[in-house]
Design goal:
By secondary structure, this protein is of the alpha+beta class. Helix content is about 40%, strand content about 25%. Strands 1, 2, 3, 4, 5, 6, 7, 8, 9 and 10 form a ten-stranded antiparallel sheet that branches.
Amino acid sequence: MNTIRSAMPDPRLRQFVRCFAQREISGRNSWVVQTSIASLEHTLAFCFGDQPVMQYSSGNRALIPRIHVVGTQTRSPGCARFTGSTVAFGIFLSPFACWRLFRIPSIEFTDRDFEGEQVFGPWITNLWLKLAECKTFGDRINVANGALLPFAANASPPTMNMVAAGSLLRPGHSTRIPQLARESYMSTRNFQRKFAEDTGISPKLFARLGRFQLALDMKRTRGNDWAKVAHELGYFDQMHMVKDFRAFGGDSPSRLIQICGDFQPWSIGTPMSLNRVMTTEMPSSFPDIPNLPSSST
């Protein structure tokens, strides 16, 4: 069995948390391979079963930590390999949530991942213990909501660049960077520099990544054909969209939407949704796991 459940957070967390997700894999003697894709969100992932292995695009391999913090990814970092039984719970944060909730600059996370306690200290280990004691996905949602709400109550307000970035994530937006700079009372060059300081990436790349994610969500939630998705999101044509999918996900749109799984979870307006994910199975003769390190890229 390989399923992913996803759900929306408490309404008071909606500006900080995109969704919660839980992966369940059980009874596997062979390896399950799941592609990781580019994403604007930061992810806090908690593993309660057999630890998967990350096969990085660089060729390195490492055990994924039981508490794994993943920053904004501007390209596919590789793929995750699972075997045995795994239950993992993920908190998918909005692009600026780490700054607003925890005062950690987004630029510190770009194209990087970490063991959780290195970033958040004992707080996140205590959260892992509470989540591990939960019996159901709903129980874990309640624990996660309770852990994050105190931070939300004391969150920093968004900066001008964070507000400007929000306009780049609207479906079919036509806002140009010089216009955003004027609205932020900056020159275009200063706006681009400050934007990169706040987000870790350039405005142009931020907009491309946002559109890529909107394309995935639009296909999942509306079932539109790919040509209509490309048109509504302002791609020049469908091949332009395919080029971005290969750059950010390493595969074609139709294939990628089937294999990216909980690296791009979704909730479709209902309290919870259950999704079955297509993955690739490989023989169980994958190289020895116990000697692999558990570290970030």
